[in-house]
Amino acid sequence: MRLLVTGGAGYIGSHTVVELLEGGHDVVVVDDLSNSSEVALDRVAGLTGRRPEFRRVDLVDNDVLASVFDDGPYDCVLHFAGLKAVGESVEQPLRYFRTNLIGTLNLLTEMDRAGCRDLIFSSSATVYGAPQALPLIETHPTGGTTSPYGRTKHMIEEICYDVAATGAGWRIALLRYFNPVGAHLSGRIGEDPKGIPNNLVPYVLQVAVGRRPHVDVFGNDYPTSDGTGVRDYLHVVDLAKGHLAAMENIDRFEGARAVNLGTGSGNSVLDVINGFAEASGRRIAYEFADRRPGDVPELYADPSLAAELLGWKAERGLAEICADGWAWQSANPNGYASD
Ligand code: UFG
């Protein structure tokens, strides 16, 4: 198949492109490189022996996007491109709405024009808001999101349902990711956040490698096993394989349908810090700090729909996440800038 991958140079996108190329597909990547690096695509080419076609495109620029579709056809679109930092979205809501919503509206419009109506979208567990019950199941109410970023994910889901309801033959997989972490088993590609990492795992890795002095643990008085926040950490290679499974089973997404991609079990912040300390053989200094506004105590998926619909389940646990994450960070202490 010939596939269009938006945001394909980014963290989850690049790992998915590896799986798609290894699966024998032809891949065209569009990415504006605002939070990613073309070096990731060089590394992907090194790993797979195949170079994805690349075009630097901002999806908000509809004319350029239209020209990408003029060079089609594409059998399916995987849409990763978007801004994703929760805190930044509170500071810059207009930028988030503009990039995520207009980018997606342009993409859907061009897909419709081209008659390509199979889409895999990077949604997020953030659409559930504060969980009313755990594990989170797809029928849990959505929309109680606490940030502009989260609202863009929820709004895009709603837009997709409306577009799918036209009966034009859309098949849209709304993949609700839990916490993607870790790196490719080769250590050649991984997460390379620009600036200070917002998320726990890249922060811990930068402490392990000596780029930052300590991790702040946001809250140690939650009603969890050790008082720190619990999340469902999913190895990025498992997540990438989930996209392949969704594509192979796209006929099961007639209209639009949401599916959780998570492991089904949670780990605390201290579990994660200890896991990386063990994998790296280094002490990872941490300090307890106030709770981070908007955080919930505990979040983990019910992944049974993904197993039933896609035959997919996560195969890697925290030990592999830490080993592979450390292999990436220690070989690339400054991310892709190490090249
Ligand atoms: N945490 C710390 N210190 C840090 C960073 C995080 O203690 O420096 C804690 C958080 O309080 C939380 C856990 O580590 O308990 C995980 O935090 P992350 O920022 O890594 O991830 P979140 O669960 O907050 O957010 C992730 C994605 C979002 C997505 C959300 C969906 O980053 O994009 O999951 O639930 F919306």
How much beta, percentage-wise? 15-25%
Give the overall shape, derived from the CA principal axes: globular
Tally of separate helices:
11
Reading off the top of the CATH hierarchy, the class of the domain at 2-182 and 234-263 and 301-315 is best stated as Alpha Beta
Widest beta sheet: strand line-up: 3-2-1-4-5-6-11
Number of strands: 13
Largest sheet: 7 strands, parallel
Mean pLDDT: 97
Ligands in the model, by name, code or SMILES, are: uridine-5'-diphosphate-4-deoxy-4-fluoro-alpha-D-galactose
**Oligomeric state of the chains?**
single chain
CATH topology category name of the domain at 2-182 and 234-263 and 301-315: Rossmann fold
CATH superfamily of the domain at 2-182 and 234-263 and 301-315: NAD(P)-binding Rossmann-like Domain
Broad structural category: alpha/beta
Radius of gyration, whole Å? 19 Å
- The rounded distance between the terminal residues' Cα atoms is 32 Å
CATH architecture field of the domain at 2-182 and 234-263 and 301-315: 3-Layer(aba) Sandwich
The residue ranges in which pLDDT falls below 50 over 5 or more consecutive positions are: none
Secondary-structure element sequence? EHEHEHEHHEHEEHEEEHEEHEHH
Describe this structure in words.
The protein has 339 residues and is an alpha/beta fold. The protein has a domain at 2-182 and 234-263 and 301-315: 3-Layer(aba) Sandwich (Rossmann fold). Helix content is 39%, strand content 17%. Helix 1 (11-22) links the parallel strand 1 and strand 2 (26-31). It is globular and about 55 Å long. The model has no long low-confidence stretch (mean pLDDT 97). The structure holds uridine-5'-diphosphate-4-deoxy-4-fluoro-alpha-D-galactose.
